[in-house]
Amino acid sequence: MNNSIINCIKEFIAKHDEQLVSQCVIVKTPYIPFIPKNWNGTLVLAEAQNLSKRYEKYANELNASTLEEQIYRLKNKDNLGVLPWDDNSLKIAVEVGLKQDHTEVAVSNACFWSQRNEDGNNVNPSKILQELSGKLWQELFELLKPKVVVTTGKIAKIIINSSEYSGKSYNLCHPSSNYLSRFSGLIEESDILERFTEISAIDQKFPSWMAKGEYRQNKLFYAMHALRKLKAI
């Protein structure tokens, strides 16, 4: 499997090198999901890595590393570099919405590349990078064969739809604090915990995930969103 993945990515880079260079991507080499040894077949995808100037050191370290290290950059399950996972939002969605053990799911971003604007800030991946990501996922899905794919945000949904993935696919809104803070306060914390016992149970099992000061209201609201959207699974 490892050799097949590395060869797939090498061939993809060689084929699309000019396009990637023209898009001024921060790191040209794409990467694969973090896949635990006890993977249950579920793949959870955020949108893209934030490689703004704020994360210059990390980006430089990636560019100085080997091809294989770049491909397998998602290696620390507690701090992957997939922000909605690292801030526990997607772990909450998995445990509450999917009723799955978060340690058994694979995690990545839908777009394999990141860009910056002239000020060095992170920007949404271009249409070209979204299209290229869809093409690469189409090839990787043949190798990884996930059973369920959960995307977060509009861009991730567009990319996976373009890959023509034929398995079970579900989309959640992006758990951005800027987005959720607009309306998460419309529902009282006590109402959520009393109405949804599943959320209350996760709050007690993993108290640090929705701790006060960690956008608790947003996390509670996102848990409710995930529960309603993924309950059918």
Structure write-up:
The protein has 233 residues and is α/β, with parallel strands linked by helices. The protein has one domain: 3-Layer(aba) Sandwich (Uracil-DNA Glycosylase, subunit E). It is 48% helix and 10% strand. It is built from 11 helices and 6 strands. It has helices at 2-22, 56-64, 67-71, 83-86, 89-98, 127-144, 154-162, 177-180, 189-195, 197-205, 216-230; strands at 42-46, 106-109, 115-116, 122-123, 148-152, 168-172. The strands form 2 sheets. A 4-stranded parallel sheet has the order 2-1-5-6, sandwiched between helices. α1 runs antiparallel to α6 (127-144) and α5 runs parallel beside α11 (216-230). The chain is globular, with a radius of gyration of 18 Å. The mean pLDDT is 94.
| CATH class category | Alpha Beta
- What percentage of residues falls in helices of 4 or more residues? 40-55%
Measured between the Cα atoms of the first and last residue, the distance is 28 Å
Radius of gyration over C-alpha positions, nearest whole angstrom: 18 Å
The general outline is globular
Structural class: alpha/beta
Mean pLDDT: 94
